Amino acid sequence: MLGSPTKQEEDATPVAARPECPVDTLGKVELPCLGAESHSAPDAPTVVNVWAWWCGPCRQELPLFDDLAESHPEWNVVGVHADTNAANGAALLNELGVQLPSFQDDHNTFAGTYGLPGVVPITVVMDKNQQIVQTFPAVFASKAELETAVKEALSR
């Protein structure tokens, strides 16, 4: 199409700066941090939101994860942007004012490694040893609903 960016041009789009990712890996999966670096945090449960920039329900849900992270500093709360266009992912987070550190997953490596459904959003709860304890292939409507689900998953 005339005027549409080529795949090479899309990949060359600069990615906006984003917050650092609090962990180096998500279980067995190592991904680059979207717009920042990763560092190793103390062993803590990890809550992962798998999302994509084009996903309407993700757009509604992403701010809940920011609120969850603020309320629960004892958890690593991160996102996994499951799309090849990292620049659009970082831009969406910045547009929404969401500070959620996110990993970039160009090839759906995270979902593929753990056999997750091919839909977004998906929430994954991992224990402090980075083992998955529960997945939620659904949209959370409130922070309270999300928080309750995570607490119940971690209490198992």
UniProtKB/TrEMBL annotation:
Highest taxon above the source species: Bacteria
Pfam family, one: AhpC-TSA
Record-level Gene Ontology MF annotations: antioxidant activity; oxidoreductase activity
Every Thioredoxin domain range: 1-155
InterPro entries from the UniProt entry: AhpC/TSA, Thioredoxin-like_sf, Thioredoxin_CS, Thioredoxin_domain, Thioredoxin_ResA/DsbE_sf
Name of the protein described by the UniProt record: TlpA family protein disulfide reductase
Gene source species: Corynebacterium hindlerae
